[in-house]
Design brief:
The protein is α+β, with helices and mostly antiparallel strands. Strands 2-3-4-10-7-5 form a 6-stranded mixed sheet. Strands 1-8-9 form a 3-stranded antiparallel sheet, covered by helices on one side. The protein has a 3-stranded antiparallel sheet with strand order 6-14-11. The chain is globular, with a radius of gyration of 28 Å. Bound molecules: protoporphyrin IX containing FE. Protoporphyrin IX containing FE binds next to helix 11, helix 16, helix 17 and helix 22. The site of protoporphyrin IX containing FE has 27 residues, from helix 11, helix 16, helix 17 and helix 22.
Length: 584
């Protein structure tokens, strides 16, 4: 499906009122305002020359008091009217820009800083609306006859078009040159430097060209072996070797650490031990903790001014410390590898070595130092939290579906009965184990929004109920692929709330939509699947995963409480209490 680009045909006025493009904002230079301004300037001049300084703070001149009491409210009223006027004009402008699509109407849009900072609720969609309102939204789609809606602000934020249609999503993420990633939407990833996730055009091609060779079959083969060994370190390090049953109050702690060590070891050729403290150059905070704090406070980091970190507020101080620990870790890793390579070490093909080698070459595919740090950060961040959140969801789903878990166990015992059988070639035969991870990723897609801006006027096709409607989208319009909506769209995934791993049996890699599509699909797709398959296969071979209830909780109560997704930087399940029971 290819979007037809070109001039936008004139909009046909429909039931919505049209805003005139020639409207001017109410001018602040009206008579009352001018009067107040002249008076204030004159009074201030008089006060400057005749009155002591305290008069400026406490007006004692009776006439001044009178005038101020009259003019401040009227100035405020004027400002309020100007504000409301501009918002009304903007609202209709935005409605026209987004093709008068029905949808979300709120004070602040979900992807504005204000909207994203406030929780999802009746009056604020917030970051979690895609999950919390997924069923309700489908009712709204059905009512409006479309899988593509708009989000318009009454007060704050940019308008956007959201889609849960696969056909529209494909046009947005795969049409070359017509859409790009705006720095307003990728800014949180740019703090460390330019990176593959945020880049566009030639810069994106250059980064992708440098990094892609690190994602090869030989990488996945060693990844499988390394991930298996990290899993064994986890079992020993957590003291499970002698136990028949282990209660894990929150699996996120384990999956996060596992995925972080895997990306550092296999992705960056920088092995870390299960005791992550040794990876930090700080005694106060481990590297794992630092990354966790950074990832969960990205919006705070974006809005806090630099001086705020000097305030005696623990959360702010921890955030600053976490930034420092992460920066030190990356600098140290880059410096060590540079030294190894310049001392004549055999060139490696991990992500870091490839980037360093390119930074030392001149030419079209060279990376600057800040690009090197920016790409290191994005790979570390994107390369572990996404997988960890999905693994948490998979554990929960396995605990709720013991029969399917037994099928997974049977498959692993058939394909990989011994440690020697744990090879990459064999792992691809574990279709039930892989499908369990993919189905967890469908229900809880960690990359939950794929955001683009239109680089030119373009027409989106297949938008309506029978996918026959076309929507002209003007240049500059923001579009969001709602990956939660898409993966819960009953047209694409019948019975979307049900756990049905068989949906993913023998599906080609390009059809794994949770990793996006086309040239900009996730570079770490196979990496994530390989490490997750290894984790789940090793786990299910020796252990049965059960729900861990507290205080007489029923299975239904446990499910309602813990199988809820939450969107922060990524989307998924962050708290997952499970019990492991050793298989006979
Ligand atoms: C379950 C695990 C994962 C999921 C669901 C996932 C999902 C996604 C999605 C949907 C995108 C496209 C985002 C967009 O277009 O805005 C993406 C891009 C990306 N992912 Fe992943 N990802 C996962 C794991 C990983 C891993 C393990 C790595 C690194 C080793 C990684 C690195 C990246 C990078 C660098 C990009 C940007 C690629 C580009 O723009 O060329 N991801 N991912």
């Amino acid at each position: 499906m290819k979007a037809t680009s070109g001039r936008v045909p004139p909009m046909t006025p429909n039931s919505m009122p049209q805003a005139s493009d020639t409207w001017t904002y109410p001018s602040p230079s009206n008579a009352a305002h001018q009067h107040g301004q002249t008076y204030c300037t004159q009074t201030a001049k008089r006060l400057e020359t005749t009155a002591p300084f305290s008069l400026l703070l406490v007006p004692q001149h009776p006439q001044l008091e009178k005038m101020l009491s009259l003019d401040i409210p009227s100035a405020l009223l004027t400002a309020l009217l100007v504000f409301i006027g501009t918002r009304i004009v903007n609202y209709f402008k935005f409605a026209k820009q987004t093709g008068y699509l029905p949808g979300l109407r709120s004070l602040a849009t979900p992807i504005s800083v204000l909207g994203a900072s406030l929780p999802t609720g009746r009056f604020n969609p917030g970051l979690n609306w895609q999950w919390q309102w997924r069923k309700h939204v489908y009712e709204a789609y059905a009512r409006h006859g479309t899988e593509t809606i708009s989000s318009l602000p009454y007060l704050f934020g940019e308008p956007a078009i959201y889609t849960s249609s696969l056909e529209v999503a494909r046009q947005i993420v795969s049409t070359r040159g017509s859409f790009y990633k705006h720095t307003e939407t990728t800014g949180i990833t740019l703090e460390w430097g330019p990176n593959l996730f945020a880049a566009n055009g030639d810069e994106w091609k250059r980064f992708r060209r440098v990094i892609t060779p690190a994602f090869s079959s030989s990488t996945y083969a060693s990844l499988l072996t390394e991930a298996a060994s990290i899993f064994d370190q986890m079992v020993a390090g957590e003291g499970w070797l002698t136990k028949d049953s282990v209660d894990i109050p929150n699996s996120d702690f384990l999956t996060n650490k596992f995925a972080l060590i895997v990306i550092a070891t296999s992705g960056f050729g920088h092995p870390l031990s299960w005791n992550l403290k040794s990876a930090s150059l700080s005694d106060e905070m481990s590297f794992g903790e630092a990354l966790h704090i950074r990832l969960h406070n990205l919006i705070l980091r974006l809005i806090l001014p630099q001086w705020a970190y000097w305030l005696p507020i623990k959360k702010f101080r921890d955030l600053e410390k976490a930034t420092q620990v992460t920066q030190d870790f990356m600098n140290d890793m880059i410096r060590t590898r540079r030294e190894e390579l310049s001392a004549g070490a055999v060139p490696k093909t991990d992500i870091l070595s490839l980037m360093i080698q390119s930074s030392e070459n001149e030419g079209r595919f060279s990376m600057t130092d800040s690009e090197l740090v920016g790409n290191t950060a994005i790979m570390l961040f994107a390369g572990h939290e996404t997988t960890a959140l999905t693994l948490n969801a998979a554990l929960g789903l396995m605990a709720l579906h013991p029969d399917f878990q037994d099928e997974m166990h049977h498959e692993v015992m058939t394909v990989m009965p011994t440690e020697a059988d744990f090879t990459f070639a064999n792992s691809s035969k574990l279709r039930k184990t892989q499908a369990c991870f993919l189905e967890a990723s469908r229900i809880y897609p960690s990359g939950f929004m794929w955001i683009r801006d239109a680089a030119e006027d373009i027409v989106l096709e297949h938008v309506g109920p029978n996918r026959d409607q076309r929507i002209p989208v003007p240049k500059g319009t923001r579009l969001v692929v709602d990956s939660i909506g898409l993966h819960h769209n009953p047209r694409l995934f019948p019975d979307p709330e049900a756990f049905k791993p068989e949906r993913w049996y023998d599906v080609s890699e390009n059809a794994l939509t949770m990793f996006s599509m086309g040239a900009r699909a996730c570079i770490g797709r196979r990496f994530a699947i390989t490490e997750a398959t290894c984790f789940l296969a090793k786990l299910v071979r020796d252990w049965r995963v059960e729900i861990l209830t507290r205080g007489g909780e029923s299975k239904a109560q446990w499910e309602a409480k813990y199988m809820e997704g939450r969107a922060v930087t990524n989307f998924g399940i962050a708290e997952m209490p499970v019990r492991l029971v050793r298989r006979a």
